[in-house]
Design a protein that fits this description.
506 residues, binds NADPH dihydro-nicotinamide-adenine-dinucleotide phosphate, alpha+beta, globular
Length: 506
């Protein structure tokens, strides 16, 4: 709590002096309250409207200000000005979050963590709305609301429900890679400072000559990866539900500024055509051995927000906020998010949310013909022209800012990814090749202690999905749930449709 300025007069929201803030105005004593106590009416009315709609996902979060610094020359890949020179610094605001829980939920929940970065560049704000996982549960945005419903509360009981959770996942085997990460101890990072951030999506970078590349971002924590075990996270949820919010704030207050190294993976269009995985499928990574990460920058968070609501709750990130030199890829989840984030903010904050101080460009001017709408803060562009073209010297488009044209072809239809995708291989590689024995034991325990709450037919189906990723993985889950391993093996040999039918007959 800060304020220590003396002799200030308390006023209404309209600046008139308040004579008394302890006793409502009554007719007689005690007497009924008079409607002419306009100060009381203003207070009650404002209080009723203090909450804005909670984010439907990523509701619980913490944020901080800082900077991003370029450490390597990437001008052959992108013409983005904020990346144009080594040592160049750009202000950033970062918001970390959990995904499924409500605004009051515990920071230690098993959940992916949001990792959203707003770069205040001289060419406008550039937002990277990533997660602490390099992949996602689904690869088509048509499935997103269904998926999220299953991670939230049951429509009847208002309780979290293991049947919903695992039913959807077991019917959507493309999720198994992300599920394997989520149920490893990386699903419960120790703090927001001890986790990586990944773009997960592929983006297009193009240079001043119009040549383009596909790019994925990895923000690697310089604090080191640290995770909570299942036992530690359960305990912490009760002891300090805000532990990660507190940790971030306190670290920055004591000058222990968290930092991340930005690595990118780069793929040429020719390599993308030939890669063994679909490079735009968000349920897959690009293997490091195929596309070695290159370090290009560093991000440091060194200032806490002064006001949580103004800076964190009202912060609005959108993957559609690009700058020249960076553009979208055909990743369908990204394409869906290009619409959904902006639309969510229109609902949550109103049509002029970009005018709020945290969302306003800091290093670029805003010159456009949009006007009016709820909460048109500022002078609403005075008497300047509000249409284009005009003969009064209004802002003109800059053709140089165009993304180079690119070819598209094919049939308009609802169609799956073209490459013959394998939903299981990369999850298996994580289990077999990356995890230690201890990681695998924790993974199996984390899964079985949650999946045991679902119906047996769902347990069988999900165990078969794990089995398809890796035989030992599936067997250990089956054994941990005391399922018939032979039955799981049989189910794993079936097609997804046959498996669904077989388990639904149980
Ligand atoms: P490598 O074998 O070269 O490296 C393994 C990666 O996995 C490291 O980046 C490591 O992160 C990360 N990792 C370690 N434990 C876990 C965990 N429990 N959950 C998620 N990630 C973890 O990677 P490959 O490229 O050969 O890919 C092998 C597998 O590694 C993939 O199938 C994928 O599951 C996982 N992975 C791959 C990434 C990629 O972009 N290629 C990124 C992250 C994970 P750190 O360096 O921070 O320890």
């Amino acid at each position: 709590m800060k304020r220590d300025e003396k002799n200030q007069i308390y006023t209404t929201g309209f600046g008139a002096p308040v004579d008394n803030d302890q006793n409502s105005k009554t007719a007689g004593n005690p007497g009924p309250i008079l409607i002419q106590d306009t100060h009381l009416l203003e207070k009650l009315g404002h209080f009723n409207r203090e909450r804005i709609p909670e984010r439907v996902v990523h509701a619980k979060g913490a944020g901080a200000h800082g900077y991003f610094e370029v450490t390597d020359d990437v001008t052959k890949y992108t013409k983005a000005k904020f990346l144009s020179e080594i040592d160049k610094r750009t202000d950033v605001f970062v918001r970390f979050s959990t995904v499924g829980g409500e605004k009051g939920s515990a920071d230690a929940e098993r959940d992916p963590r949001g990792f959203a970065v707003k770069f205040y560049t001289e060419e406008g704000n550039y937002d990277m709305t990533g997660n602490n996982t390099p992949v996602f549960f689904i690869r088509d945005p048509l499935k997103f609301s269904d998926f999220i419903h299953t991670q939230k509360r049951h429509p009847g009981t208002n309780l979290k429900n293991a049947d919903m959770f695992w039913d959807f996942l077991s019917l959507t085997p493309e999720s198994v890679h992300q599920v394997t990460i989520l149920f490893s101890d990386r699903g419960t990072p120790k703090t927001y400072r001890n986790m990586n951030g990944y773009s997960s999506h592929t983006f297009k970078w193009y240079n001043k000559d119009g040549a383009y590349y596909w790019v994925q971002y990895h923000f690697k924590t310089e604090q080191g990866i640290q995770n909570l075990t299942r036992g530690e996270s359960s305990e912490l949820k009760g002891k300090d539900p805000d532990h990660a919010t507190r940790d971030l704030y306190e670290a920055i207050e004591r000058g222990d500024y968290p930092s991340w190294r930005l690595e990118i993976q780069i793929m040429t269009p020719e390599q993308a055509n030939e890669y063994r995985f679909d490079p735009f499928d968000i349920t897959k990574v690009w293997f490091h051995a195929d596309f070695p990460p290159i370090t290009i920058g560093r991000m440091v968070l060194n200032r806490n927000p002064g006001n949580y609501f103004a800076e964190v709750e009202q912060a609005a990130f959108s993957p559609a906020n690009f700058v020249p030199g960076i553009a979208a890829s055909p990743d369908k989840m990204l394409q869906g998010r290009l619409f959904a984030y902006h639309d969510a903010h229109l609902h949550r904050l109103g049509p002029n949310y970009q005018l709020l101080p945290i969302n306003r460009p800091k290093a670029a001017e805003v010159n456009y013909y949009q006007r009016d709408g709820l909460m048109a803060l500022g002078d609403n562009n005075g008497d300047n022209p509000n249409y284009y073209p005009n003969s009064f010297g209004g802002p003109e488009p800059a053709p140089d800012a165009a993304e180079p044209s690119f070819e598209v072809s094919g049939q308009a239809a609802r169609q799956p990814y073209i490459h013959p995708n394998d939903d299981f291989f990369q999850a298996g590689e994580l289990y077999r090749r990356v995890m230690t024995d201890e990681d695998r034991t924790h993974l199996i325990g984390n899964i079985t202690s949650h999946l045991c709450n679902a119906q047996k037919r769902i347990q069988l189906r999900q165990a078969a999905v794990f089995y398809k990723a890796d035989v030992e993985y599936g067997r250990r889950v089956a054994e941990g749930l005391e399922l018939d391993v032979k039955e799981v093996e049989n189910l794993a040999r079936m097609s997804q449709d046959e498996r669904t039918q077989a388990t639904n007959q149980n």
